[in-house]
Amino acid sequence: MVRVAGIQIAPIVLNSQKTWEKLSDYIREARDNDAKLVTWGETLIPGYPFWPSQTGGAKWDNSDQKKTYSTYWREALDLTGGSEVILEMRKLAKELQIMMMGGIAEKSSGSTYCTLITIDENGELINRHRKIKPTYEERLIWADGDGLGLKTVPFHGYKIGGLNCWENWIPYARASLHKQNELLHVAVWPGSDGLTREITRFLALEGRYWVISASGLLRTEDLLNLSDKEFPVKKYLNLEEKKGKIWQNGGTVIADPKGNFVSDPLVGTEGIVYADVDFMKAIEERQNFDYSGHYSRFDIFNAPI
Q: Residue 46: is the preceding peptide bond cis (ω within 30°)?
Protein backbone atom coordinates (compact mmCIF):
# COMPACT_ATOMS: atom_id res chain seq x y z
CA MET A 1 0.00 0.00 0.00
CA VAL A 2 1.40 3.36 -1.07
CA ARG A 3 -0.33 6.64 -0.24
CA VAL A 4 -0.74 9.15 -3.06
CA ALA A 5 -2.13 12.67 -3.01
CA GLY A 6 -3.84 15.10 -5.35
CA ILE A 7 -3.27 18.73 -4.35
CA GLN A 8 -5.87 21.30 -5.42
CA ILE A 9 -4.99 24.96 -4.95
CA ALA A 10 -5.31 28.26 -6.75
CA PRO A 11 -2.05 29.72 -8.03
CA ILE A 12 -0.64 33.09 -7.17
CA VAL A 13 -1.44 33.96 -10.76
CA LEU A 14 1.59 34.85 -12.90
CA ASN A 15 3.97 34.59 -9.96
CA SER A 16 5.88 31.31 -10.14
CA GLN A 17 7.93 31.76 -6.99
CA LYS A 18 4.97 32.60 -4.74
CA THR A 19 2.88 29.82 -6.28
CA TRP A 20 5.67 27.35 -5.61
CA GLU A 21 5.99 28.56 -2.02
CA LYS A 22 2.26 27.97 -1.52
CA LEU A 23 2.39 24.57 -3.24
CA SER A 24 5.41 23.48 -1.22
CA ASP A 25 3.46 23.97 2.02
CA TYR A 26 0.79 21.61 0.72
CA ILE A 27 3.45 19.11 -0.36
CA ARG A 28 4.88 19.13 3.14
CA GLU A 29 1.39 18.59 4.56
CA ALA A 30 0.83 15.65 2.21
CA ARG A 31 4.17 14.14 3.22
CA ASP A 32 3.27 14.58 6.89
CA ASN A 33 0.21 12.46 6.07
CA ASP A 34 2.46 9.74 4.62
CA ALA A 35 2.00 10.50 0.91
CA LYS A 36 4.79 9.14 -1.29
CA LEU A 37 3.51 10.77 -4.50
CA VAL A 38 2.05 14.27 -4.84
CA THR A 39 0.31 15.63 -7.91
CA TRP A 40 -1.16 19.00 -8.90
CA GLY A 41 -3.07 20.57 -11.79
CA GLU A 42 -2.24 21.60 -15.34
CA THR A 43 0.22 24.55 -15.52
CA LEU A 44 -0.50 25.46 -11.90
CA ILE A 45 2.84 27.25 -12.03
CA PRO A 46 2.40 30.12 -12.96
CA GLY A 47 -1.30 29.50 -13.77
CA TYR A 48 -3.50 28.32 -16.58
CA PRO A 49 -3.88 30.88 -19.44
CA PHE A 50 -7.61 31.45 -19.03
CA TRP A 51 -7.75 34.91 -20.65
CA PRO A 52 -7.58 34.54 -24.48
CA SER A 53 -11.27 33.73 -24.96
CA GLN A 54 -12.25 36.44 -22.48
CA THR A 55 -10.13 39.27 -23.90
CA GLY A 56 -9.97 38.88 -27.68
CA GLY A 57 -6.78 36.87 -27.55
CA ALA A 58 -6.70 36.28 -31.33
CA LYS A 59 -6.32 39.97 -32.16
CA TRP A 60 -3.28 40.29 -34.41
CA ASP A 61 -0.32 42.34 -33.17
CA ASN A 62 -2.29 43.62 -30.17
CA SER A 63 -0.03 45.32 -27.62
CA ASP A 64 -2.08 44.20 -24.61
CA GLN A 65 -1.98 40.55 -25.69
CA LYS A 66 1.73 40.70 -26.47
CA LYS A 67 2.58 42.25 -23.11
CA THR A 68 0.45 39.69 -21.27
CA TYR A 69 2.15 36.87 -23.16
CA SER A 70 5.58 38.21 -22.30
CA THR A 71 4.63 38.25 -18.61
CA TYR A 72 3.48 34.65 -18.88
CA TRP A 73 6.71 33.69 -20.66
CA ARG A 74 8.78 35.43 -17.99
CA GLU A 75 7.08 33.39 -15.25
CA ALA A 76 7.27 30.08 -17.14
CA LEU A 77 10.00 27.69 -15.98
CA ASP A 78 13.23 26.81 -17.77
CA LEU A 79 14.06 23.11 -17.45
CA THR A 80 17.63 23.47 -18.70
CA GLY A 81 18.90 24.68 -15.33
CA GLY A 82 17.91 28.33 -15.30
CA SER A 83 14.88 28.11 -13.03
CA GLU A 84 15.24 28.58 -9.29
CA VAL A 85 11.79 27.07 -8.74
CA ILE A 86 12.82 23.80 -10.41
CA LEU A 87 15.96 23.67 -8.30
CA GLU A 88 13.86 24.18 -5.16
CA MET A 89 11.43 21.48 -6.27
CA ARG A 90 14.24 19.01 -6.73
CA LYS A 91 15.73 19.91 -3.36
CA LEU A 92 12.40 19.44 -1.57
CA ALA A 93 11.68 16.11 -3.29
CA LYS A 94 15.01 14.79 -2.10
CA GLU A 95 14.56 16.20 1.40
CA LEU A 96 11.10 14.66 1.82
CA GLN A 97 11.85 11.52 -0.20
CA ILE A 98 8.69 12.10 -2.21
CA MET A 99 7.85 11.90 -5.91
CA MET A 100 6.28 14.96 -7.55
CA MET A 101 4.19 14.93 -10.71
CA GLY A 102 2.44 18.11 -11.81
CA GLY A 103 1.87 20.84 -14.35
CA ILE A 104 4.01 23.84 -15.18
CA ALA A 105 4.34 26.29 -18.04
CA GLU A 106 7.74 25.62 -19.58
CA LYS A 107 9.66 28.11 -21.68
CA SER A 108 12.20 27.42 -24.39
CA SER A 109 13.46 30.16 -26.69
CA GLY A 110 10.45 32.49 -27.05
CA SER A 111 7.86 29.71 -26.83
CA THR A 112 5.88 28.32 -23.92
CA TYR A 113 4.67 24.75 -23.46
CA CYS A 114 2.09 23.03 -21.30
CA THR A 115 4.37 20.57 -19.50
CA LEU A 116 3.87 17.76 -17.02
CA ILE A 117 7.04 17.17 -15.02
CA THR A 118 8.09 14.26 -12.84
CA ILE A 119 10.72 14.58 -10.11
CA ASP A 120 11.71 11.43 -8.25
CA GLU A 121 12.56 10.84 -4.59
CA ASN A 122 16.24 11.53 -5.29
CA GLY A 123 15.44 14.99 -6.61
CA GLU A 124 16.06 14.04 -10.23
CA LEU A 125 13.91 15.46 -13.02
CA ILE A 126 13.15 12.15 -14.71
CA ASN A 127 10.50 13.18 -17.22
CA ARG A 128 8.94 16.15 -18.92
CA HIS A 129 5.93 15.67 -21.14
CA ARG A 130 4.89 18.60 -23.33
CA LYS A 131 1.22 18.65 -24.30
CA ILE A 132 1.09 17.26 -27.82
CA LYS A 133 -1.66 19.54 -29.11
CA PRO A 134 -2.94 22.52 -27.09
CA THR A 135 -6.73 22.78 -27.18
CA TYR A 136 -8.55 25.57 -29.01
CA GLU A 137 -7.55 29.02 -27.64
CA GLU A 138 -4.64 27.46 -25.74
CA ARG A 139 -2.88 27.47 -29.12
CA LEU A 140 -2.58 31.25 -28.82
CA ILE A 141 -0.27 30.71 -25.82
CA TRP A 142 1.29 27.24 -25.98
CA ALA A 143 3.36 25.69 -28.75
CA ASP A 144 2.81 22.09 -29.89
CA GLY A 145 4.67 19.52 -27.82
CA ASP A 146 6.42 16.30 -28.77
CA GLY A 147 6.40 12.62 -27.93
CA LEU A 148 9.63 12.48 -25.95
CA GLY A 149 7.82 12.47 -22.61
CA LEU A 150 5.25 9.81 -23.50
CA LYS A 151 6.74 7.30 -21.12
CA THR A 152 6.13 5.67 -17.78
CA VAL A 153 8.47 6.00 -14.81
CA PRO A 154 9.23 3.64 -11.89
CA PHE A 155 7.45 4.15 -8.59
CA HIS A 156 7.77 1.66 -5.72
CA GLY A 157 8.44 -1.19 -8.12
CA TYR A 158 5.65 -0.37 -10.56
CA LYS A 159 5.12 1.97 -13.53
CA ILE A 160 3.18 5.24 -13.48
CA GLY A 161 2.54 7.84 -16.17
CA GLY A 162 0.50 10.90 -16.97
CA LEU A 163 -1.11 13.17 -19.55
CA ASN A 164 -2.26 16.78 -19.76
CA CYS A 165 -5.99 17.56 -19.86
CA TRP A 166 -7.67 16.55 -23.15
CA GLU A 167 -4.71 14.35 -24.08
CA ASN A 168 -6.47 11.88 -21.82
CA TRP A 169 -9.15 11.56 -24.53
CA ILE A 170 -6.61 10.57 -27.21
CA PRO A 171 -6.65 6.75 -27.61
CA TYR A 172 -3.12 6.50 -29.02
CA ALA A 173 -1.69 8.68 -26.23
CA ARG A 174 -3.27 6.42 -23.62
CA ALA A 175 -2.22 3.31 -25.53
CA SER A 176 1.41 4.42 -25.66
CA LEU A 177 1.47 4.49 -21.84
CA HIS A 178 -0.55 1.29 -21.50
CA LYS A 179 2.05 -0.49 -23.62
CA GLN A 180 4.63 0.47 -20.99
CA ASN A 181 2.75 -1.34 -18.20
CA GLU A 182 1.19 1.71 -16.55
CA LEU A 183 -0.55 0.83 -13.26
CA LEU A 184 -1.27 4.35 -12.01
CA HIS A 185 -2.24 7.23 -14.28
CA VAL A 186 -2.04 10.94 -13.45
CA ALA A 187 -4.38 13.19 -15.42
CA VAL A 188 -3.82 16.92 -14.81
CA TRP A 189 -6.51 19.52 -15.51
CA PRO A 190 -6.93 23.32 -15.25
CA GLY A 191 -9.96 22.79 -13.01
CA SER A 192 -13.49 21.59 -13.72
CA ASP A 193 -15.39 18.74 -12.15
CA GLY A 194 -17.34 18.65 -15.40
CA LEU A 195 -14.13 17.41 -17.00
CA THR A 196 -12.91 15.08 -14.29
CA ARG A 197 -16.05 13.43 -12.95
CA GLU A 198 -16.78 11.09 -15.86
CA ILE A 199 -13.42 10.66 -17.59
CA THR A 200 -11.66 9.66 -14.36
CA ARG A 201 -13.97 6.66 -14.04
CA PHE A 202 -13.66 5.92 -17.76
CA LEU A 203 -9.86 5.93 -17.63
CA ALA A 204 -9.84 3.63 -14.62
CA LEU A 205 -12.32 1.20 -16.16
CA GLU A 206 -10.52 1.11 -19.50
CA GLY A 207 -7.01 0.82 -18.13
CA ARG A 208 -7.83 -1.20 -15.00
CA TYR A 209 -5.49 1.07 -13.11
CA TRP A 210 -5.54 3.74 -10.44
CA VAL A 211 -6.26 7.27 -11.69
CA ILE A 212 -5.49 10.60 -10.02
CA SER A 213 -7.23 13.54 -11.67
CA ALA A 214 -5.45 16.60 -10.25
CA SER A 215 -7.02 19.99 -10.91
CA GLY A 216 -6.39 23.63 -10.24
CA LEU A 217 -8.73 26.27 -8.86
CA LEU A 218 -9.31 29.87 -9.94
CA ARG A 219 -11.55 32.52 -8.38
CA THR A 220 -12.01 36.21 -9.05
CA GLU A 221 -10.24 36.98 -5.77
CA ASP A 222 -7.13 35.30 -7.22
CA LEU A 223 -7.07 37.84 -10.08
CA LEU A 224 -7.76 41.17 -8.38
CA ASN A 225 -4.13 41.91 -7.50
CA LEU A 226 -2.78 41.34 -11.00
CA SER A 227 -0.80 44.33 -12.24
CA ASP A 228 -2.45 46.43 -14.94
CA LYS A 229 1.02 47.02 -16.37
CA GLU A 230 2.11 43.37 -16.42
CA PHE A 231 -1.34 41.98 -17.24
CA PRO A 232 -2.98 44.72 -19.35
CA VAL A 233 -5.83 42.48 -20.56
CA LYS A 234 -7.16 42.71 -17.01
CA LYS A 235 -9.26 45.70 -18.04
CA TYR A 236 -11.37 43.50 -20.32
CA LEU A 237 -12.27 41.02 -17.56
CA ASN A 238 -14.62 43.30 -15.53
CA LEU A 239 -13.41 41.73 -12.31
CA GLU A 240 -15.19 44.15 -9.99
CA GLU A 241 -18.49 42.91 -11.38
CA LYS A 242 -17.47 39.27 -10.96
CA LYS A 243 -16.52 39.12 -7.30
CA GLY A 244 -17.33 35.70 -5.89
CA LYS A 245 -17.14 34.03 -9.30
CA ILE A 246 -15.33 30.71 -9.53
CA TRP A 247 -13.66 30.48 -12.94
CA GLN A 248 -12.26 26.99 -12.43
CA ASN A 249 -13.86 24.92 -9.68
CA GLY A 250 -11.38 22.06 -9.31
CA GLY A 251 -12.73 18.52 -9.34
CA THR A 252 -9.64 16.70 -8.03
CA VAL A 253 -10.53 13.05 -7.48
CA ILE A 254 -8.97 9.57 -7.33
CA ALA A 255 -10.49 6.38 -8.74
CA ASP A 256 -9.57 2.76 -8.13
CA PRO A 257 -9.11 0.13 -10.88
CA LYS A 258 -12.85 -0.71 -10.74
CA GLY A 259 -13.76 2.89 -11.53
CA ASN A 260 -14.93 3.69 -8.01
CA PHE A 261 -14.10 7.06 -6.49
CA VAL A 262 -11.99 6.80 -3.37
CA SER A 263 -13.64 10.05 -2.30
CA ASP A 264 -15.99 12.55 -3.90
CA PRO A 265 -14.43 15.16 -6.23
CA LEU A 266 -13.07 18.19 -4.38
CA VAL A 267 -15.07 21.14 -5.76
CA GLY A 268 -14.79 24.88 -5.16
CA THR A 269 -12.18 24.75 -2.42
CA GLU A 270 -8.49 24.15 -1.82
CA GLY A 271 -7.35 20.93 -0.25
CA ILE A 272 -5.75 17.51 -0.69
CA VAL A 273 -7.32 14.17 -1.61
CA TYR A 274 -5.58 10.91 -0.71
CA ALA A 275 -5.70 7.26 -1.64
CA ASP A 276 -3.86 4.22 -0.32
CA VAL A 277 -2.90 2.46 -3.54
CA ASP A 278 -2.59 -1.31 -3.73
CA PHE A 279 -1.08 -1.98 -7.16
CA MET A 280 -2.12 -5.61 -6.91
CA LYS A 281 -5.74 -4.45 -7.20
CA ALA A 282 -4.93 -3.32 -10.74
CA ILE A 283 -3.43 -6.71 -11.53
CA GLU A 284 -6.53 -8.45 -10.17
CA GLU A 285 -8.78 -6.45 -12.49
CA ARG A 286 -6.57 -7.32 -15.46
CA GLN A 287 -7.16 -11.03 -14.98
CA ASN A 288 -10.20 -10.73 -17.25
CA PHE A 289 -9.39 -7.59 -19.27
CA ASP A 290 -5.83 -6.35 -19.71
CA TYR A 291 -5.60 -3.48 -22.16
CA SER A 292 -1.86 -3.38 -21.46
CA GLY A 293 -1.40 -7.11 -22.04
CA HIS A 294 -3.37 -9.97 -23.56
CA TYR A 295 -6.23 -7.72 -24.75
CA SER A 296 -3.95 -5.11 -26.29
CA ARG A 297 -3.05 -6.76 -29.60
CA PHE A 298 -0.56 -4.01 -30.30
CA ASP A 299 0.89 -6.38 -32.89
CA ILE A 300 -2.11 -5.70 -35.14
CA PHE A 301 -3.32 -2.31 -33.88
CA ASN A 302 0.11 -0.73 -34.41
CA ALA A 303 -0.30 1.80 -31.63
CA PRO A 304 2.87 3.91 -31.25
CA ILE A 305 5.30 3.39 -28.42
A: yes
